[in-house]
Design brief:
Length: about 240
Amino acid sequence: MSGVERLDFAERWLRDGMSVLRPALSVHQITVDMTNALARFEQLRREGVHVGATHLLIQAAAKALAANPQLHQIVAGSKRLRPESVDIGLSVAGETFVAPVLVIKEADKKTLAEIAAEIATRTPAVRQQDAQMIKTLRRVGWLVPFGFLRRGLLRMLFTSPAFRRGGVGTFQVSMVPVDWALSGTFSTAGVLVGGAIQSRVVAVDGVPVVRPMMTVTLSGDHGVWDGRASARFLSAVRGSLE
């Protein structure tokens, strides 16, 4: 027999946050030939540096934003923040439907090896901090028992660009083990999602060949990015990856 249970206060806070963060969504997608990237991975691994598509996508996004500073901004409420550094938020697996975020500061200035080492070193601490936050919400979340009060408080917090940047960086990146995926933008102006690398038949100089391809999807806040800006950003990302 089906059962009904009440959500605990941690889940209520998280769901209220999701309902508050609903900017106008603009979606653009490209496919990227990862042939040269895979060769680069193998060369780095032979040198003792273990990297993958996640690290390369972070670096590519950071460099694209640094090269196009007019695209690098956060709009919160009636305020616009143009950050002085590119801080990439990486979604990592957590215990709830809202993934914790590891913020890599000044990602555009770091090598692939530095990005990989930082992720490997800091991920356990980020997961521990997220688990502690959930535990705290379950313990004291009842102090704001009504949904409209929680959402009002969250709306106030999310009008602060500094609050948004502190939690998830200035731009987010995520990798998913499927062909492609679409994400909401949440606190940042955009989220770049890389799919699994899969062998596909593509045309090269009019000839069908099999290449390792990855689908990359950009979810952008349409109040910040228009179609031309999204295309320019994705073009820079593809150039870096290929």
